[in-house]
Protein 1
Amino acid sequence: MEIKDTYKTLAEPSEETLLKEKNSKFFGYAFPIETEEAVKEILETLRKQHSGAGHFCYAYQIGTDKISFRANDDGEPSNSAGMPIYGQIQSFGLTNVLIVVVRYFGGTKLGVGGLISAYRTSAQMSLEVAEIIEKTISVHYLITFDYKNMNKVMRVIKEKNLELISQKMEMSCEIEIATRKKNAEHTFDIFNSMFEIGIKIKE
């Protein structure tokens, strides 16, 4: 079975999009994120920017192996906002993404069907203007060895095109490397079979 070691996310935050529906305004935003903390910060910024808005509905998904996601209706009828937004993250096949739709109420009720459609469309618009990129999932290893084995280790890193993240060079050396997930097991085996060299996954 081939290991999937790429995922799609956003290169940078999208431009603001605006959808008008029966005098209600829906501002859409999409952001690349790595952590749930980032969600809070972005929401705070948008709340300041749109202090007169009634609803800040959002959905996000984080992770590649372990997925965590959340959909929030922020006071709109249950499942009329957060889930339609989350559906767009799924239909674009993205992860590490947050979409926020900010609604200004225009005086006319849209009904649940109208809301679902408006939030879905607004989320879709924000992703259509965003730049979607493919990223590689890496596995990080710590390699430990005595200084005298330095050349041996460096040769493998070079031959296998491994990414060097950090290095501590003293009498006993420690190097952090990253490799594509699909090559991870092979990389581990090479170092693991070498004499006087330790390797472990960096959590």
Protein 2
Amino acid sequence: MPTLRQLTLTLLLSVLGVLTVTAQANDTTWQALEEGGLVILMRHSLAPGVGDPPGFERGRCETQRNLSEQGRAQARLAGEAFRERNIPIGAVYASRWCRALDTAELMQLGDVEPAPWLDSFFRGRGDREAITQAARERIAAWEQSGNMLLVTHQVNISALAGRGVGSGEMLVVRPATGGLEVVGRLDVRAP
């Protein structure tokens, strides 16, 4: 029977193996971004809670769920990671929700354009099909040498790519016949 020490060592080696795979996946994704022409689907940084409080009004941040200090730090850290690697950003679009706009602004990767086609449709706040279709059309039309950064919400990313992401996490995609090809996932959040 294995000792507690042997079990602990085995668990530690397993965790380190996962971290190595994640780091390698991030490296491959960063390299693809250096070449440009891709789309980054980013979930806004950490804004504790779910949905928005009663009395929500778009354009009035005090009525919304907003970034925490940790979320603000996540956004700044993500922007630093892009700048350190000289990742070309050709355009930055964000949902009109304050937490998405704030994330994009704090990243400091270019002028941020509010985009209704990135707005959340969680709990019936918008037309899921229309918003998703408009986002797909924008993504399919991206043919710039730089990358396009889209800061949006979990529900939007799941509808577009069929995968979820954590707060501040990103999926890097390219348009493909019949949908999107996921190039990789980026997680530059502070531990």
Protein 3
Amino acid sequence: MGTLAVLVFAWLSIQQVDDEHALTWEGQVTDRYNAAVTNIGEDPPEVRLGGIYALQRIMRDSPRDQPSIVNVLSTYIRNHAKKPKQAIDALKRKPTSDVQAALTALGSRNPVHDGTARVDLHGANLSGADLSGAYLHGADLSDANLIVADLSGADLSDANLSKANLSVANLSVADLSVADLRRADLPGAYLPDADLRDAILFAADLRDADLSGADLRGADLRNARR
């Protein structure tokens, strides 16, 4: 009986230590999260950049915080990547370092931990952005400016790209299956070997787009300009 009591006491002691470690860890993550969110609201760009990198690390360290971080970074990008007043400026601009860092963090996350969160970049000015290989399945990119953006190899399946400007964008080998591209601007877009199965391209502008090797099975091309 004495031996059993010792074992039970030892097990309870270990459990208590584990619980204390878990609480300490959760507190540390919460402090890191609050500090990072505060930093991305600061003026110096290097402080904002540090906050974004911190949020990216938290997504790796604490998967349960990923949904809220996806929402925070999406909102940050929409607020800091607004469309230029003149269309010609879009060809000359690339995302600032903090916006590009936020895009990279979103595009490289592990989607298994997204929960119900989704990337929402509707209306954002992402001209010249590097989103190559990014995971953007189901993302909202409607009315976004993606002129000359690099989306090669990106997963854009089931994404909303309606009315998006993808002029001269690189979409080679991109997965655009079941994507909504209705009324999207794609003149001069580079789409070789892209997966466009069951994509909606109704009234899309495909003039001078390179569709060599693209899979268009089941795609809706009604009223598309080619």
Protein 4
Amino acid sequence: MENPDKETLDNWHKDPNNWKWGIFYYNPKDTRGMVPKKIEWMGWTINFANTKAVLLFFGMTLFFIFVVTLITNHQS
């Protein structure tokens, strides 16, 4: 689905089948990389069905670990 309407997006968001373990959003039909969390006022999460979003998430995580490791080793 190229550009789903707001009603479709809301239905996807409310569908419990799109939430793994209640916290991870996984919907292959949804092309968005970032989606509102299940409790929307808590911020955003990634769509784990979107390969680009997952790669970006892991890339940022690895970069963060690398920076922390550099800082920790430099202080020794």
